[in-house]
Predict the 3D structure of the following.
Amino acid sequence: MSKDNPVIGIIDDDPFIVKILCQLFESTEFTSVVINENEDIEAAIDASEVDLILLDLNLQNHYGFEIARQLRSRSDLGLIMLTGSKDQLDKLVGLEIGVDDYILKPFDKRELTARCRNVLRRVLLSRAARTAQKSNEMDQVLPGSPLLGLDASHFRLKAANGNSVKLSPHEFRLAELLIKAAGSDVSREQISREIFEREWSPYTRSVDVLVSKLRKKVAELGTEAEIITVRGKGYQLLK
């Protein structure tokens, strides 16, 4: 999955609706991923680096507002509720929770696509501003690793030998943490708080999966830089 495109997660227990949405996004600049309501939703969102969730209000085993409240409490992820209910109270509850938009079924495909773009514009601009601010702080305060550097404008990891590789936003933020602390340990707890905006849990592998992805990209650079696992502590970028 390429993070050159915004990723939209679909949580809906109606196979017909899911199929329509997936086919719709195939013809747009979006990448879609289907998330089952019974899996670890937060881990699935982290693994696919989802930018926006389309969430059905009345799922088979969960109430959509419960999931929306949980997601909103941990991040500025885009949230759009999909529902067949015309109850005005449901709409008000959703907006109070922090849902970005509320769309009734059946929906117009062009209108839904336009609303997704509007929400994603807010989400991506906000993330870009935070990334730029953190990168400026890193450039001004910390020398980082002599073997690796970051190009914040193009989300690339650069090696001293001239090679570079494209990073996803989450990979970029992880690389930033490790470069800042080059030669020192970075805990799973810190990575989870800084990147996924929630406390680390030993029952999810979001941090480990992300580190594995970045480790492979560091290896592609053909440099001596290496991300090692420090047992009981976390990870470290060797200087």
Remarks:
- The longest helix spans residues 109-141.
- The helical segments are 15-26, 41-48, 64-72, 88-97, 109-141, 169-180, 188-196, 206-220.
- Confidence is low (pLDDT under 50) at residues 138-143.
- The chain has eight helices and eleven strands.
